[in-house]
Amino acid sequence: MSPRPARRTQETGIKLSADEIAFVRSLVIYEDPDILALNKPSGLSSQGGRAQVHTLDELLWAFARPGKARPRLIHRLDRDTSGVILTAKTKPAAGFLGKAMMARKFAKTYRAIVTPGAPQPPQGVIEAPLRRDEIGREAYMRVCPPDHADAEAARTRYRTLGEASGAALLELDPETGRMHQLRVHLASIGRPIAGDPRYGGALVVAGHPVPRLMLHAAALIFPHPGGGLKRLEAPVPADMAQLLAALKLG
Asked: So where does this one cross the membrane (predicted)?
C-alpha cells in the first residue's frame, strides 16, 4: 500500500509528498519506542537548508503520529556528510539524550578518504583550536592560536585503515563537536578530505572523479534512555564504496 501524504498542519505548514515519505522511511536503520536512527545521505541538510526542498528535520514529520510532534534531532551532520543520525521519539528521551550529548557521553566514528596519502604518523591526535570565520553568507572554521579571543578547543583522533596511490582511508573519532572539525583538522595536517574544495580537498583522485565530500558517519555509541549503551552503524553509501573500490581501498 502506498504511503499517504502527511497533512499540512497549522503549526508547521509542512506538507510532504508520498515520495518524500517513502524516501525518509527508507533511511531508517533502527527504531524502538524511544529512538529512531537514520542513514542520512549526502546532500540532505539536517536543518535550516536554504533551498526550496525539505530538510531532514522537516521530513521527520513523516513519523509523527496524529496530534503528536515529530521525532527530535539529537545532533546534526553537515549537508554533504552521510551517515548515522539520531532522533528521539519522546520528550523524555530527547532530554536524556541531550544531557548525555552535553556530557560528552556520545562516541562518534567516521570514515574519510584523504589525499595525497596517509598522514605521518599513520595514527595520532590532532589538537588544534578552531575559530569561526564568516565571509559573506558563508561560514568557515579556521585553525587558530589557543589564546585567540574566539578560540574553541578541538580534538580529533585518527587512524589509517588503508593507503593507496594518492589517497588513504582514515577512521576518525572526534572528541569535540565543532563545526567542520574533521574537515579543518585534516586539512591542517596536509590531508584534506577528497571532494571538499572548501578546505582544499581534491575533486579527482588517481584519475577518478570525486562526486562529493568523502566523509561518512559510520558508527555512534551512546547511553540509551532505556538503560545500557547502544551502538548503531550506517553502511558506507554506494558512491563512497565505488571510489574506495576504484582506489583499491575497499
From this structure: none
